[in-house]
Here is the input.
Amino acid sequence: MHTRSQLSQGAWSGASRLAAVGLTVVALTIAACGGSATPGPSPTDAAVAKATLAPATAAPATTAPTATAVVVNVEASQADSSFLLKADQIAVPAGKVTFNFKNNGTMTHEVLVYPVQDVTKLLALKRNGTDADEKDFIKGLAVGLLDIEPAKSATADATLAPGLYELACWAVGKNPDGTTYEHYDKGQTLTLAVTGPGGPGTSIATAANAINVAMQDGLNGSWILNPDTLVAIAGDVTFKVTNNMKINHDFAVYPIGDVSGPIAAGLTSGQDIDLAAPAVGLFQDLAPGKTDSKTVKLSPGTYVMACFMVSRNPDGTTFVHRDMGQRITFIVK
Ligand SMILES: [Cu+2]
Here is the structure.
């Protein structure tokens, strides 16, 4: 059984900025029927795209008729202790996708694109400052625009198969006391749905008052959250979550931001992480086969839904379920 502790110290370093979002649990209903479970992401066969340092401008116009180009513009930014990625698309059709990346932050950032997966091993190395190559750990890496300096841009093409993907910065930073942190934990992760057969349908970008989420197995032993939409309408948003897995899981919703402090504390203590407000822990210990439903009031912005339960590996080390794949970003508008 998991024990739980309220993390009061340094649990939310961006609290002052994020407090304005004001999450409130407004209702609780128990749903009787199961949630919809659509297939998870399928592996991508796309090769790692070569990063080229170039301004993020449109390709020269040609007179020959071409298929409509699919472009995702991504930017890195920093605010308080949070590092963020913003993208102008939440869903794109499978096929060729061009990623334009602009670093609007004050330090070097990068963007990698890959199917949502278990990144516990890579995170464990990077969090303690070990130099690890993302390509050795991330499966199906589709884009790697690395070491992009402030104010610089870069672009890369990828061919993406249908599935749920993650855009993330894997840069490592150093605190004044010499300890290191992962940009990944500072908020620089973003979900991108690639629609098509075997993956999400185009309805994944349809704004709704309710989001149905299935907790299920993902690629390569990962654990994923499979939502039916990534866009909520501001106001009362109902989350109906079904646990299709073999162990209990938690489910929290929070405005995207720095969670490095709570994660470090949870990994050290081995106790499940309860994010401080404005995060809302909607469900705790949702049992296998169960469905539960709750409504929260959300204002416009980018949010994360994730499980912050902490479990132990056979070797005694700890991991956060979020890092096993149980993390999805979504927008409220
Ligand atoms: Cu979990």
